[in-house]
Specification:
It contains five helices and two strands; from the N terminus they run ββααααα. By secondary structure, the chain is mostly helical. The mean pLDDT is 86.
């Protein structure tokens, strides 16, 4: 890795997840590039020596107790770190990684509604087309049924049962398939 302008060889001790870097990307870029950018945690002694920053730090993460106000803590941190070149504290809602992941979840939530609406609309159109054609082809049979005393309600119910079988089968198949793929994902 490039460490303070010099190429360094590192021995990795592990791979971790960190709440402040859910989505790691170079500042100012929209997409991650794991081949040229990463977040590394190193022991303080080696890092301070590499950057000639003994007694300093460049990032600080805090966890607030339940009920603690974020704004007063940020204001106090800003006042405390200004003499040392602090650039300003910010809450999780303003953290680039949190913003990116929240945006992804918002887009996925929109798609989770949009795609089913489109597919159900197409399915409703196709069901309507099939039933319309079926009714047009079976006009004579419907007339015979009415002649034998069947009511309009009974005939409509018969054709609605036909549509219900298609809808129930599609719903069952789609629900089970969605559940299986969703839990796998």
């Amino acid at each position: 890795m490039l460490l303070n302008g010099r190429r360094q060889t590192l021995d990795l001790a592990g791979i971790v997840l960190s709440p402040e870097y859910i989505f790691e990307s170079r500042p100012g870029t929209a997409l991650p590039d794991n081949r040229t950018y990463g977040i590394f945690w190193m022991s303080y002694r080696e890092l301070a020596a590499a950057f000639d920053l003994d007694g300093a730090f460049n990032h600080l993460s805090l966890r607030l107790d339940p009920g603690a106000g974020e704004r007063p803590v940020i204001a106090a941190l800003d006042r405390m770190l200004v003499p040392y070149g602090g650039r300003g504290a910010y809450g999780r809602a303003d953290h680039p990684s949190h913003i990116r992941v929240s945006d992804e979840i918002r887009v996925l939530s929109t798609l989770a509604v949009g795609f089913p609406v489109v597919f159900l609309s197409v399915a409703a159109f196709m069901t309507n087309a099939v039933l319309s054609r079926l009714l047009a082809l079976q006009r004579e049979q419907i007339a015979i049924l009415k002649a034998f005393g069947f009511t309009n309600h009974q005939i409509v119910l018969h054709y609605l049962k036909f549509a219900f079988v298609m809808v129930a089968g599609g719903t069952l198949l789609g629900g089970v398939g969605g559940w299986c793929w969703g839990t796998g994902l």
